[in-house]
Amino acid sequence: MGKINRDVLIENCKKYLGRPYVWGGESMEEGGYDCSGLLYRVLQDSGFQVGRTTSQGYRAIGRKIPLAERKKGDLLFFGTPERAVHVSICDENGKMYESIGRSINTKENPGLGVTYSNISRRNDMIEVRTLFDQNGEAVTDKEPEKVSNYQVGKVYTLQAEMKVRTGAGTNYRAKSYSELTANGQKHDSDRDGAVDAGTRVTCTGVKTVGKDIWIQTPSGWIAAVYQGKTYIK
Length: 233
Prior knowledge:
By secondary structure, the protein is mainly beta. It has 3 helices and 16 strands.
């Protein structure tokens, strides 16, 4: 992974300031970034090998620390104890980097986007997670799991809340709640277009994109193995 520290993470946040908010977005090709899309890009730019998921999904990475012990580069989660609806990157002096917008924001109708905000603007912080050790160095992940052989017709289980896309790859648009099948909507508890962890899905197609594996489900394409991480078993 190389040497990664808190300063690296913060410097990568600064690159995105002023970029617009697009729900489900993680690139300017899509028109902008939502909060989890911003986090995904910052972590990738910094050298962390993480997959693309939602605010709630990112509660599975790093380790939880007390709210009062947060430091720059830590991840701040907002919402309810049961479900995070927003995520940001902590900085010093009560500040954070975040992407602000709503689910109605599209490429043609973008939201405010990436800002340097006061943490106190929200009163629903529920969790802080850190990716660093006591010396401020990044904690490297364990060796990636071996890739499973996915087969059409078999049923698999999502290990995290996952976005559903129109095609195999992050360059394809993330679907909205209304675009999921009726059964898919039943497993999208917060109606954000991302299917809940624990959902069982039927594989109707498999595609390898580089080192990643995507499976097609009735609702659309979902990353099964991404950046060395297994999200569907």
